[in-house]
Amino acid sequence: MRSTALFAASLFLSAPAALAIPTLAVAQDAAAPAASVTDAQLEGFAAAMNKVREISAAVQNGAPTAEQQAAMAAAIDGAGLDIATFNALSGQVSSDPVLRARLAVVTAPDPAPGSVAAGVSEEEVAKFSTAMAEIRTVAPASGAPTADQQAAMAKAVEDSGLGLERFNAISSAVSSDAHLRARVELADAQRGA
């Protein structure tokens, strides 16, 4: 018999806009290593989380009704997860930047077919991420870069193997495509940036 009792505690993700994650109270098993979490589990978690957030938004005075608890449990079950797995994923997504970045990738809309973003390979994402990390170390916080800073940034692009034109095309696509941006953020997280 599984417990569907809820409590009002929320976990907060370290994201541009903090996201509150309600947690269902159950006896939790040891969490699976983040590397063993599948994309399908992350997609299910995201779907369940959206429904749980909708339901929890209606909770009055921090105590959900039995009906709200049942609706949250049904949303989790409907996403192919059990409550213990949902809670484990909630904690892992909150504490693991790589898993949080993977969640962003699986939930971001796919790039438009034929767009620059759709044609960026995983190798190019890794090269772009590495070059950007180097550029961030030499770019000025404000104002125009000095000649030395410009040369160092150009060298970072050259050393990446992308070429200036491809680097600029990817840079432009990253700013306008959520999926590509999430992929670059995943590469950053995997690199420990």
Topology:
Layout: E1 6-12, E2 20-24, H1 39-56, H2 66-78, H3 83-95, H4 97-107, H5 122-138, H6 147-160, H7 164-176, H8 178-191
Antiparallel strand pairs: 1-2
Helix pairs in contact: 1-2, 1-4, 3-4, 4-8, 5-6, 5-8, 7-8
Q: Can you give a write-up of this model?
A:
With 193 residues, the chain is mainly α. The protein is built from eight helices and two strands; from the N terminus they run ββαααααααα. The protein has a two-stranded antiparallel ribbon with strand order 1-2. The relative contact order is 0.13. Residues 1-30 have low confidence and may be disordered.
Shape: elongated
Structural class: mainly alpha
Q: What is the string of helix and strand elements?
A: EEHHHHHHHH
Largest sheet: 2 strands, antiparallel
The strands making up the biggest β-sheet line up spatially as: 1-2
List the defining traits of the structure above:
8 helices; 193 residues; disordered N terminus; two-stranded antiparallel ribbon
Give a short synopsis of this structure.
This protein has helices at residues 39-56, 66-78, 83-95, 97-107, 122-138, 147-160, 164-176, 178-191; strands spanning 6-12, 20-24.
